[in-house]
Amino acid sequence: MSNSDPLIIPPKLKLSQKIYLKIFGRCKIGSVKEGWKDKIPLFAFYCNKHGIMSSLPLGSNNMLICPSCLEERKISEELAELEIQQIIDDEELIHSQQNNIIYV
Length: 104
Ligand SMILES: [Zn+2]
What we know:
It contains 2 helices and 3 strands; from the N terminus they run H-E-E-E-H. It is of the alpha+beta class. The termini are far apart.
């Protein structure tokens, strides 16, 4: 993703938008046009971890998901997969060592 991605840059809000955000939990700050589809509203909201972030509404209940949290979750899932792979490798090693035992 490029630095100009509106979803990654924490949005700069006007005072009126900050107040609106505080009251309503989300504040429309613009819209994003994806290809030839209709414009999708871009909302600012407050993430407990990353502060003011922006997101497109997702799903049928228009959920706003922090893109930075999502990115971190992706990374931790990839790490978890690596750890699982490591455990499998270790087990294979144990099995192969057991196979090398010669009983007399
Ligand atoms: Zn976040």
